[in-house]
Amino acid sequence: MSAPTYPSIAIVDIPGKGKGVVAREPIRRGTRIIAEEPRIRVPHYQDRRQALDLKSLSDADLKFFLTFPCEDGMDPVRGRLRHLIPCVGAPDEASALFETVCRMNHTCYSPLGRPNALYTWVEERKEENIAENEEITVGYIQAKTHVMDPFTLLRQQWGFDCRCAGCQRPLAERLESVERVQAFNVHTREVPDRMERNSGYWPLDILDDIERNLLAICAEGYVWEISGCAHDAFQLCAFYGDGASAARWEVLAREVHRVIHGVDHEFEKSAKLVARPTGFRQWKALVLGKAQKLRGPSQKVLSCFKQAVMTSNPIKCSNHECSKTEEGSVKFRRCKSCLDTLGLDVYYCSGECQIADWKSGHKSICGKAVKV
Ligand SMILES: [Zn+2]
Ligand SMILES: [Zn+2]
Ligand SMILES: [Zn+2]
After folding, report:
1. Any idea which ligand is nearest the CA of 271?
2. Which residue intervals define the domain MYND-type in the entry (predicted)?
3. What is the predicted pLDDT for the residue at 1?
């Protein structure tokens, strides 16, 4: 395999924000932006009191360290260590200052907007299409940590005033968002208990709740949470032996994973569940006697999913070897089985590309392959 190539980006001065990172070419959704080695490692990040020994740094690293902003009155080391990011798989739970990734500024997830990129541990990945010279931003706050007004939290933890569209709303509205995100977090934690046989909840009611939560969290900008919600719904359908509905849910989880992380081990696992829901470890775990028919995602959820995850502007051919996009009046064909069975749009510029993609793997994940 050839070494991965990454799009051209640059660290520049951003008025009012200090440094920031911008794209030097248009970047398409789903592209890996960067993977980089840590520059200054700090072990045992969890213990925030442990400060960095500046004397241990080389002159160049010390200079680099001091380029990070620190407010007046703050401890000059700890103030700068607020920019640390966890290192992937570090046995000493190290965090680090990275040369480029730590320069990416923040945008809040909110009903009015969201960041255009996302940390996926090793790499930054594009969430939206990014135009040339557009600033690349990530979210320092995720649904799980969205437990108070982001504007206040950002000022406390990172020492800046967020000027994103979400933070310009009146405080009361921002607090309503906090409540909705919290309600989502609580629901997500409770779902496994609700699925227990003697919980007193009907499976169709649980599905309704999952859907309501999925739509609510997407409305708050956290569209990637679709994945977890959809997998919960998959499990529920699998517990009751409804493979067709289970597959339709899992395909949402699978596609979210593909857009964020690409085709990796986790994607393969998810694709296997789509193709053969009966392979799920606890298949039919809750069935007494006859399996129960539940349901797949509603039209509302599907259109939310398509809008959040599948739209790429313009539409691209699904054959990875092909870079054609739908332009003008020529409409791309769609895979019929994927559309009919899973409600999923899979586009091809031509029959040749559809055949090539089929041979190179679509065969195993195509809607037609669902076996229940
Ligand atoms: Zn904000
Ligand atoms: Zn093509
Ligand atoms: Zn297909």
Report:
1. 3
2. 319-366
3. 45
- Ligand closest to the CA atom of residue 316: 2
Distance (Å) from CA 364 to ligand 3 centroid? 9
Ligand closest to Cα of 160 equals: 1
Cβ–Cβ < 8 Å for 369, 275? yes
Stretches in the chain below the pLDDT threshold 70 = 1-4, 45-51, 121-128, 311-314, 371-372
Comparing C-alpha atoms, which of 42, 33, 136 is closest to residue 86? 42
Phi, psi of 370 (to 5 degrees): -60, 120
**Local structure of residue 240 (DSSP, 8 states):** T
Q: Report the C-alpha gap between 99 and 120 in whole angstroms.
A: 17
Helix/strand/coil for 35: strand
The owner of tokens 């969201």 is: 114
pLDDT value for 125? 63
Q: pLDDT digit string (tens) for 211-265?
A: 999 999 999 999 989 999 999 999 999 999 999 999 999 999 998 888 887 778 8
pLDDT confidence of residue 134: 86
Q: What are phi and psi of 211, to 5 degrees?
A: -65, -45
Query: Which residues neighbour ligand 3 (ion) by CB within 5 Å?
Result: 335, 337-338, 366
Task: State the Cα–Cα distance between residues 247 and 354, nearest whole angstrom.
Answer: 22
Q: How far is the CA of 138 from the centre of ligand 2 (A)?
A: 31
Handedness of CA 295, 144, 65, 151 (dihedral sign): positive
* Nearest-ligand number for the alpha carbon of 108: 1
Q: Residue 325 and residue 320: Cα distance in Å, rounded?
A: 12
Residue 320 CA, ligand 2 centroid: distance in Å: 8
CB under 8 Å to 326, separation ≥6 — which residues?
A: 314, 315, 316, 332, 347, 349
Tokens for 2? Answer: 């050839």
Q: Which pair of structure tokens corresponds to residue 43? A: 């072990």
Reduced to 3 states (helix: H, G, I; strand: E, B; else coil), residue 64 is: helix
**Could you count the other beta carbons within 10 Å of the beta carbon of residue 49?**
6
